[in-house]
């Protein structure tokens, strides 16, 4: 499945993470026909095994599908690129078209955990494409932008959508992004925490929690897991004021 992005604003020319569309190039997914590309494993339950299902040479013990969702512009793509490649896509905002995925293998206490991270388009017109992918996601990262009140207000609508299309036991995590733009901030951390506490959130599966947290594993679902992050450092995912790494970068690579 291709993802192409359309430029939304001007700025420094930053290389896009994906190929731009052309007449003969990859086309965006159409409603109801969205399927993973040849490198993508079929949808399904937790996938143990070696080697990689994707055939990309990755070796792993367990695999999970994670989807990033939230309004357009909240920073889903940037978060994913930062997590995968360690780079921050500053400048030009290029809106995702359709859906795309990237794989990453983490070492969690000696267990190789493969994450297939799906980056979805936040724009309303692509919603029907992304709906098809909710069903088999093990975890959802629901993002809002702390400098954009509407993106926070829309979290309820996203939750309704998740309730409708995702598995009832999907792990869910709320992330307030762009906390580095403190002067533009309009959504307080407390409001994010309040929303998180008002909702039953599943703890993201324990392996990832441990990897991001640099901590002991924790078992079972957790209530009120409200997280703030900014995509300039996924290691800050659990501490919005922690732009200094709390986790050795090597563990995320
Ligand atoms: N200051 C700041 N800007 C960010 C951060 N994350 C993303 N941005 C900027 O926000 C804009 C949108 O980022 P994207 O990652 O493309 O947003 P998206 O959620 O993928 O948007 P769609 O593809 O339309 O759904 C870009 O200009 C980024 O540079 C962040 O943590 N801090």
Give a written overview of the molecule.
The chain is α/β, with parallel strands linked by helices and 253 residues long. The protein has a domain at 62-212: P-loop containing nucleotide triphosphate hydrolases (Rossmann fold, 3-Layer(aba) Sandwich). Helices cover 21% and strands 22% of the residues. Strands 1-3-4-2-5-6-7 form a 7-stranded mixed β-sheet, sandwiched between helices. Strand 3 and strand 4 (111-120) form a beta hairpin. Mean pLDDT is 66; it is low at 7-55 and 202-253. Residues 72-78, 89-90, 93, 95-96, 121-123, 177-178, 180-181, 230-232 line the site of guanosine-5'-triphosphate.
The end-to-end distance, rounded to whole angstroms, is 24 Å
Q: How many DSSP-defined strands?
A: 7
Q: Radius of gyration, rounded?
A: 17 Å
Percent helix, as a range, is 10-25%
Helix-and-strand structural type: alpha/beta
Ligand set: guanosine-5'-triphosphate
CATH class of one domain: Alpha Beta
Name the CATH superfamily classification of one domain.
P-loop containing nucleotide triphosphate hydrolases
Which term fits the overall shape?
A: globular
- CATH third-tier fold name of one domain: Rossmann fold
What's the total helix number? 6
SSE arrangement, N to C = EEHEEHEHHEHHE
Give the amount of beta strand, in percent.
15-25%
Low-confidence stretches: 7-55, 202-253
Q: Which sequence of strands runs across the widest sheet?
A: 1-3-4-2-5-6-7
EC number: 3.6.5.2
GO molecular function, one term: GTP binding
Main location: membrane
Enzyme class: hydrolase
